[in-house]
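Subject: mismatched residue count in predicted assembly?

I count 467 residues in my input, but I want to confirm that the predicted structure covers every chain. Input:
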Amino acid sequence: MKLLIPLLALLVGTAQASDRIERGRYLVNTSGCADCHTPLKMGANGPEPDLARHLSGHPQELTMPAVPALPAGPWLVVSSATNTAWAGPWGVSFTANLTPDPETGLGRWSETDFVQTIRTGRHLGRGRPVLPPMPIPAYSQMTDADLKAMFAYLKSLPAIRNKVPEPWAPATSAQP
Amino acid sequence: MPGPGPLGTVPAMHRLAAIAVLLCLAAPAGAELPERLSQTGLSGPGVRGFEPRFALWSDGAAKRRWIALPPGGQVDASQPDAWRFPAGTRLWKEFSVDGRPVETRHFVLGADGRWDFASYVWDGADAVRAPARGRTLTLPGGQRYDVPSTGDCIACHGGARSPVLGFAALQLGPAVPALLREGLLKGAPAAWAMQAPDFVATTPAEHAARGYLHGNCAHCHHGDIGDGSVPVPLRLALDVGQPPAPVDAAKVLRRAGTRNPYQQMPPLGTREVDAEGLALLARHFKLENLP
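Triage response: the counts match. Full output below for your records.
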């Protein structure tokens, strides 16, 4: 009996953690996170997600040239063929590495860091602004429970080492 | 020459306390603060001014600060670098540009342990509460001035070792013994009655430079992962009685010396580089090529 209660508690805890990760997987997959955070590569049928780089953000070896000048007219945004680099009035943003790599991804982030980032639209909840096209206005409406589930799923992914560049400021439109 | 204080740090307790504070600050707002600054009690009894030794750079704005403890209230200083305040504590910080008050920030600790923040924009003889999303003002000289959103308030105060950044052992320094004798502190090291708390610095230049970094950076860069600090290997907070942690000064100056909005440090609350502050750091760290 003495062993049974801790064992049951462990099983319940494991089941709850597993449910949470599954909920997170569902939310990440249905919220379009991979659309921008998994780079596209050219396949036989056109651009397709590079699953070897699942959710690891803009590839570090893909150095972007200066942003092309847009023609006159209502054009506003340019994106890379990988769908991971975006240029607009805010400068150039690169999608983040969401895998749990400790040096280049979310490995050192706490759950609070993640929730506060999405909630406030600031990196780590207190740093630079999270830039377009990240749909912060929509995701910031998610519940704490959903955001924590997404973080639990992201932390369960294989870590991919990929150092995403820092964003470029609008005035320069070139690498800082 | 600043001398060592009596106590070291209590990192594990800091960590738990910082997480608890962050959770309280991140919770939905509690009671509404008044619509006008004149209704907040700033001119009432029990309000005292104070001045931290190492001020946060605010683009040259002049600042005045006040605190009011509830009647009979004491600040718990048993964690020397993370003071805890009694429910009902109120603080104000006024920002003036070119001799004219622009904004006064106010925060209050509720009975439920939650801090409420508001900012008041001056308009004639009184100041009116700004929207929670913040606003940008254009001052008479054409200078743009950012009134912080509630989220911005939490960004700086929420993850700190104590949400009250300026009323703290190292910031008040020589003023601490008088506070202790007055009975406003409890749990403080007895030595503080005679010897002001300080950190260990070997020269006045080091004291000034590391104090500057403490005042401008420590609210985020204060510790290890999971204690409310940002998860980067950089510790700029100082501890009572301890020497400063080693720092890659060139890297710090590079971030402090840019106003690229995605790289600047601090990341909010400033649009202009603090040239004097940078020069102070460069002199101490012997860095000639300023960013």
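DSSP finds seven helices and ten strands in chain B. Marking this ticket as 'not a bug'.
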